[in-house]
């Protein structure tokens, strides 16, 4: 069964049909630029264009969103306009497209994909995914069940928001060497380990393609592995969440 998955990001909105039994895209991704400013009306209109591109794929649609999502409502706004705060993303998407939607946090969606088809497949106990990019996203699972909206990229370390020091954007902007950045990540991962004692850390985001550059600087009791689905994780996870709901 194919389910349409859509990944809403700060720079691009992309989608593709997903075979939710195998976790693979069944058509090429279609991507449009995220409108600027990324207001609710503008973003929803762009998502509708992505949906229209795949008009032969029927049924419920899954979509990520870069925010805390409760019952379809955005409670925060990361890399989209602040007017999203308090907006019912699911209702807006459904009214514009006349299709049922499942909406979830973007890091949670990536985690759902990795637990179903990637590095976390069949893993029990506490598993934590950390997506490293513009910010630090997290997804927490207990015996395969998602604990949504953890937002642990914003824990305080040395009096500062963790992602301002340890995100890939921080590495790039501050010109940090892999070693110096890896040591900052080590502090972050050790803090997460002290709080949650996971058995497995899955590292996602674009930088997960280069684990040899920084994994050696991270010292945790938990196993540390790169994500496997990479750029397709959000689309796949959103589709899987939609299939489970509807």
Can you give a write-up of this model?
The strands form four sheets. Strands 1, 2, 3, 4, 5 and 8 form a six-stranded mixed beta sheet that branches. The model has no long low-confidence stretch (mean pLDDT 96). The chain has two domains: 2-106 and 232-245, ATPase, nucleotide binding domain (Nucleotidyltransferase, domain 5, 2-Layer Sandwich); 119-227, ATPase, nucleotide binding domain (Nucleotidyltransferase, domain 5, 2-Layer Sandwich). The radius of gyration is 17 Å and the shape is globular. It is of the alpha/beta class and 246 residues long. It contains eight helices and 15 strands.
Task: Provide key terms for this protein.
Nucleotidyltransferase, domain 5; alpha/beta; globular; 6-stranded mixed beta sheet; single chain; 15 strands
Helix-strand pattern, N to C? EEEEHEEEHEHEEEEEHHHEHEH
Our count of domains comes out at: 2
* C-alpha Rg (nearest Å): 17 Å
The SS-based structural class is alpha/beta
The biggest beta sheet is recorded as: 6 strands, mixed
CATH architecture of the largest domain: 2-Layer Sandwich
Q: Uncertain runs with pLDDT below 50, 5 residues or more?
A: none
CATH topology of the largest domain: Nucleotidyltransferase, domain 5
CATH class of the largest domain: Alpha Beta
The CATH fourth-level homologous superfamily of the largest domain: ATPase, nucleotide binding domain
What percentage of amino acids are in beta strands? 25-35%
SS summary, helix count: 8
> Would you tell me the overall average pLDDT?
96
N- and C-termini, Cα separation: 12 Å
Helix content: 25-40%
